[in-house]
Amino acid sequence: MMRSVVIVAGGTGSRMQSETPKQFLEIHGKPVIIWTIEKFISFDPEMKIILVLPESHLIVWQSIQQRYPDTRKVIITTGGASRFNSVMKGLENVGQDEIVGIHDAVRPLVSMETLERCYSEAERTGSAIPVIEAEDSLRTVIGMGSNVLDRNNVKRVQTPQVFQAHKLLTAYENSLDQTYTDDASVFESYFGQINLVQGNTENIKITFPSDMKVAAALLSEWEDR
Questions:
Q1: 13: phi > 0 → left, psi -120 to 50 → alpha, else beta; which?
Q2: DSSP string across 22-89
């Protein structure tokens, strides 16, 4: 069964304190988005890769793409007004019989093992999202107060969130709420229970300047193996 991934790259870089969108910032001389794309190519050289970009970022992408011949196979589409709409645009390029992942462009540190768990579980059961343990103490705010949460019952959600494409497409086409911030919630609203698999702690979402330093150190370590 063919594997595909929709990589959503709509970041602006505001929290990164940079005029350059975070997916285009470089780590060890290579843009974050390229690190991410290459991870999926390494996992499955036949992977269909769809990159969703704001229209204003297309010129930047074209200049980057010329430096990396392996990205010529990447399908480019422009995003919508929200993450929900952007994913929908990406899914227009996905066939009903595929296993499709939705991944954040700024998560270049997803491991091969996490990808294998996600795609294998989704092919077997219909859905798979990677999660890791919540290490910090947690509280939920209620009015002016707060209550402690049992962190043993809480998971931190990562991407790629992977699904049998025909099911995810059905969920998106029938969703009455376009404010969902992740694809598992869209899927769950239509099909119910989703399946959790173990993620990897290195699979951080690069959001702040400190995340760039962490990602640079981890990528150096991985390349030295």
A1: left
A2: GGGSEETTEEHHHHHHHHHHHH-TT-EEEEEE-GGGHHHHHHHHTT-GGGGG-EEEE--SSHHHHHHH
Q: Give yes or no for residue 140 having a pLDDT over 90.
A: no
57 vs 70: CA distance, rounded Å: 19
Question: What is the Cα–Cα distance from 113 to 126, expressed in whole angstroms?
Answer: 19
Q: Is the peptide bond before 31 cis (omega within 30 degrees of 0)?
A: no
pTM equals 0.93
**How close are the terminal C-alpha atoms of the chain, in Å?**
31
Length of the chain: 225
| Cα dihedral: 3, 69, 57, 74 (round 10) | -20
Domain boundaries, the chain: 3-224
**pLDDT of 37-62, one tens digit each?**
999 999 999 999 999 999 999 999 99
Using DSSP's 3-state secondary structure scheme, residue 185 falls into helix
Position 12: which residue type?
A: T
Query: What is the per-residue pLDDT across 106-139, written as a single tens digit (0 to 9) for each?
Result: 999 999 999 999 999 999 999 999 999 988 888 8
Fold (CATH) for 3-224: Spore Coat Polysaccharide Biosynthesis Protein SpsA; Chain A (3.90.550)
